Amino acid sequence: MQADNDFATDAELSSRIVTPGSAITSDPMYMRGHGTFTENDTIYSSVSGVVERINKLVSVRSLKQRYSGEVGDIVVGRITEVGSKRWRVDVNSRQDGVLMLSSINLPGGILRRKSESDELQMRTFFAEGDLVFAEVQLNTPAGLSLHTRSIQYGKLRNGQLVTVFPQLVPRSRNHFHSLPCGVDVVIGVNGYIWVSKQVPASKVEENAELIYSDKNDSISDHEREAIARVANCISLLNRLYVKITDASIMYAYEESLHHLVKDLLTKRVAVDLAHSVKSRLAQQS
Amino acid sequence: MSRQELLSPEGLRVDGRRPNELRRISCRASVLSSADGSSYYEQGNTKVLVAVYGPREPRQRNPALATEQAQINVEFNVAPFSTSERRRRSKGDKRLLEVAAFVRQTFEGAVQRSVYQRSQIDIYIHLLQNDGGTLEACVNAATLALVDAGISMVDYVCACTAGFVEETPVLDLCGVEEAAVETPDLTVAIMPRNGSIALLQMESRLHVSKLDDVMDLAIEGCKHIHTKLDNAVLAAANDLAEKLSH
């Protein structure tokens, strides 16, 4: 099949919306990237999304897709299985991630080889259903390999999980934010966001023994309300399909202060709030 | 019982359509928030809801199945209220399993399964109202939901039925036409880009000399459905792109 001649002009190649099976270019100078395939020397799109061109590489970025990991990504995951010397972690991806026993920190930050006794008490570190804050170490066809070798990574507690579209979370230098409203958020690149009570950084190091604790600290009603408000604001940003960063969360939080937390996601308030958050974001950009 | 007239002397069918007319189609992507991809599809009075989950970790980790290609699972569910007579169907109903198997085989050819190694794609189809053309509606709705989930596909898969009534090929049979014993009922699914056939199914007898006409009509219908689906996908993509650009 001969493709039409009029689509290959350079300007049209990028930021054009395509659907599966539509021809992108038949110019032999281009290489195919993600979201495309070739047939009879023509590059076709295999997903619906936006065409992106970097030098000679043409790819299609899908607007809605599962998370696909990259090395160095900060993710939040849930332990699904405890195996021999490893945990399986649901990271909202194509496959479960793997967290090896050798790639976690021991309580108290002791540095040593993991022994057989550590293997036997793996559930005291992470059990099924626990949430972990980790970094992607390797990306293999068998799945993502994670590690928690840093003082800030490890088990998550004192808060609640919010799930958003993964493509709304931009990769940035920092994914752990202590918001001025007294709430900590961990924005996982995989679309899992942990909203929790603020713990001062000095106290984290003090409590190195407690990194695998299952018990919540005492959380006051005031803190609970702040956590719930931030969580609802993130859900709202997700519905609006707005990029989720510490800045956008704070805008939504500030705009939401006129309303009760429990009303934030009701249709009437959400529409109202969406409008003010959007205009606020438009002002900034 | 008197035999119902399926084609009037004026050349109109029981629901007032001409032989080469499709029923009204309306469809929407992204109707469910918890699924990776979803769609709602109406063709006349046949209404289908599809949810796609995946590619995700395979449920049973069978080494024999841990292949270089994604597994596709299809579950087909018929609501008890989908027909005029209320009837609950068991999950093991052979008719339902058969439809699910057809849909699975169709998409095994269209989805780029080697892109998603060691994972599984689940397609859940719910038939909410049945007025003929179940299989075509399921295939079209599943295509829309898979595209919505951002799963790599070689092309859309568009399905359409055609039958043969009183020496005339008719497009897109409705429930009454389908139920008539003597109507042959052919379902074709094509990939419109190169016109290759992804699914071809007929359970009744039709003279071979008539087959070409009926096939051509069905393929013509598939092409119309392709533009409908493409418009729905473009609308959804434009909507998301616009929201993201803020």
Automatic annotation (TrEMBL), chain A:
It holds the Pfam family KH_6. Keywords: Exosome, Nucleus, RNA-binding, rRNA processing. Residues 70-149 form the S1 motif domain. It comes from the Eukaryota. Gene3D superfamilies: 2.40.50.100, Nucleic acid-binding proteins (2.40.50.140). Belongs to the RRP4 family. It is found in: Nucleus. GO terms for biological process: CUT catabolic process; exonucleolytic trimming to generate mature 3'-end of 5.8S rRNA from tricistronic rRNA transcript (SSU-rRNA, 5.8S rRNA, LSU-rRNA); nuclear mRNA surveillance; nuclear polyadenylation-dependent rRNA catabolic process; poly(A)-dependent snoRNA 3'-end processing; TRAMP-dependent tRNA surveillance pathway; U4 snRNA 3'-end processing. This is Exosome complex component rrp4. SMART domains: S1. GO terms for cellular component: cytoplasmic exosome (RNase complex); nuclear exosome (RNase complex). SUPFAM superfamilies: Eukaryotic type KH-domain (KH-domain type I), Nucleic acid-binding proteins, Ribosomal L27 protein-like. GO terms for molecular function: RNA binding.
From TrEMBL, chain B:
Signal peptide: none annotated. It is found in: Cytoplasm; Nucleus, Nucleolus. Pfam families: RNase_PH, RNase_PH_C. One of its GO terms (molecular function) is RNA binding. Residues 21-151, 155-221 form the Exoribonuclease phosphorolytic domain. The keyword Electron transport does not apply. Its main location: cytoplasm. GO terms for biological process: nuclear mRNA surveillance; poly(A)-dependent snoRNA 3'-end processing; rRNA catabolic process; U4 snRNA 3'-end processing. The keyword 4Fe-4S does not apply. Keywords: Cytoplasm, Exosome. It comes from the Eukaryota. One of its GO terms (cellular component) is nucleolus. Belongs to the RNase PH family. Component of the RNA exosome complex. Specifically part of the catalytically inactive RNA exosome core complex (Exo-9) which may associate with the catalytic subunits RRP6 and DIS3 in cytoplasmic- and nuclear-specific RNA exosome complex forms. Exo-9 is formed by a hexameric base ring of RNase PH domain-containing subunits and a cap ring consisting of CSL4, RRP4 and RRP40. This is Ribosomal RNA-processing protein 41.
